[in-house]
Design goal:
Elements: E1 13-16, H1 24-31, E2 35-40, H2 64-70, E3 73-77, H3 83-93, E4 98-101, H4 107-110, H5 115-121, E5 126-131, H6 146-152, H7 174-196, E6 201-205, H8 206-212, H9 217-224, E7 234-240, E8 246-252, E9 254-257, E10 260-264, H10 269-285, H11 291-294, H12 298-301, H13 309-324, H14 328-338, E11 342-344, H15 348-353, H16 355-359, E12 363-368, E13 373-378, H17 402-407, H18 414-422
Parallel strand pairs: 1-2, 1-4, 2-3, 4-5, 5-6
Antiparallel strand pairs: 7-8, 9-10, 10-11, 12-13
Helix pairs in contact: 1-7, 7-8
Length: 426
């Protein structure tokens, strides 16, 4: 097999109608090799106005948000609410393999562009609807910004410190899950199409996607009737007592150090005791030894089955001065040598400089001809021996490929494009 082939041939055409959200769905399909055509309203997608912006100058063609989620796409403008716009879109569907969208449920149906109509035009087409709550049910037509979805998905309840109200995760996440799962659904439907020769309607739910991020919290409630609550830098454990009661203890996992924070595992019992002895000796060697730790019974007195909050607090107070006196890298490199469980908490800067990512050639330089320079982007997180990933190009400018697609592929004349633009169709 040629080393230049991609997982999906660039003959697979995707019409991306996602507007303002879930753009990552089309990006993933573009990453996999599809020819993704982002269809925006005349004037551009509202997401182009989301900052930050290149050089801190607000410009719909310089949104870093837009760049991140729309690379590997071409772009056209089209008003599908107009009669001519709908007719042009129908023509495009005849040659499309996928159509993806993130409108409110029923919007495309009202325009005569729902799956039942698209299927008549092209029986093999796969329509992917990235939705907030799905297309049916009591929440289907609710407005759904990120805070609503993260809250109704249960994630917000577990974010923040235990002595404060729940908080929103700092960067919008919910619609990314809708887009990610939409892309997964598109691939499943594509596999079925290869076997059966017919398309289908795929829908993803951002709320469902958020619920998946709760990991074992949902199972913990189902099995034990215990709500997994927020703890910030704390790991909260519910310990059954001999008298049938539950004792709650808080175990800190994240600590301040000289130049940031580290994750430092401190656990006893049979599994953790050897590491605690390593930490004890390490502190002693570096001049931060604590007498009571030297002969402490880590197997018996610091086992999770019988640990007390008093013992936890005592250990944390002993370790803090040691960690605060050293940098993340100093601690990390020594932890590797000694075999202790300690990891620096990376910032965007340190992730950018990370030697492992550099060695794996994770970062990719993408040309921005309009700026006369390249911009560094995160690459594909998977290495494939037969289908290596390479970026197809930066995100499109507003209407950048109108002539290329409308004239070069659909056969419109230049004069016709001028009329369509003047009438607000493109």
């Amino acid at each position: 097999m040629s080393k230049q082939k991609t997982l999906l041939s660039n003959k697979h055409r995707v019409l991306d109608l996602c507007e303002g959200r879930a753009h990552i769905c089309g990006k993933i399909l573009g990453d996999l090799g599809c020819d993704v055509v982002q269809i925006e309203r005349p004037g551009g997608d509202p997401a182009r106005n989301v900052g930050p912006f290149y050089d801190d100058i607000p410009d719909p063609n310089k949104s870093l948000w837009w760049w991140a989620y729309n690379m590997n796409k071409r772009g056209v403008t089209l008003n599908i609410e107009s009669y001519d716009g709908r007719e042009i879109f129908r023509r495009m569907v005849t040659q499309a393999d996928f159509v993806i969208e993130s409108f409110a449920p029923g919007y495309l149906d009202d325009l005569g562009l729902g799956y039942e109509e698209l299927e008549k035009i092209n029986p093999r087409v796969i329509l992917v609807s990235c939705t907030a709550f799905g297309t049916t049910g009591p929440y289907a037509h609710y407005k759904a910004p990120d805070m609503v979805l993260m809250s109704l998905g249960g994630q917000t309840f577990m974010a923040g410190d235990d002595d404060r109200p729940p908080v929103q995760i700092s960067y919008p996440h919910a619609w990314q899950f809708a887009g990610l799962h939409g892309a997964m659904g598109a691939m499943n439907a594509h596999y079925y199409r290869e076997l059966a020769g017919e398309g289908q309607h795929v829908e993803s739910s951002a709320q469902c996607g958020v619920v998946w991020t709760n990991m074992n919290a949902n199972v913990t409630w189902d099995i034990s009737g215990i709500n997994t609550t927020r703890g910030g830098a704390i790991r909260r454990m519910e310990l059954p007592q001999a008298d049938g009661t539950i004792e709650t203890v808080n175990l800190r996992t994240t600590f301040e150090c000289k130049d940031g924070h580290v994750y430092c595992g401190m656990m006893g019992g049979e599994a953790g005791a050897p590491r605690m002895r390593i930490l004890t000796q390490w502190m002693e060697d570096w001049g931060y030894g604590v007498d009571w730790m030297k002969d402490y019974d880590w197997e018996k007195d610091y086992d999770y089955s019988n640990i007390s909050q008093e013992r936890i607090d005592r250990l944390e107070e002993a370790v803090r001065p040691f960690l605060m006196a050293h940098t993340k890298i100093e601690l990390y490199e020594e932890a590797l040598k000694r075999g202790h469980w300690l990891v620096p908490i990376g910032s965007p800067k340190s992730v950018w400089e990370d030697p492992q990512l550099r060695f794996r050639e994770f970062w990719e330089e993408v040309e921005h001809p309009e700026l006369g320079r390249t911009i560094t982007y995160p690459g594909w997180p998977i290495i494939q021996s037969e289908t290596p990933w390479k970026p197809q190009g930066r995100a499109p400018l507003i209407g950048e490929h109108n002539e290329e697609i409308y004239m070069g592929e659909l056969g419109f004349l230049k004069e016709e494009l001028i009329i369509l633009k003047a009438s607000g169709v493109i």
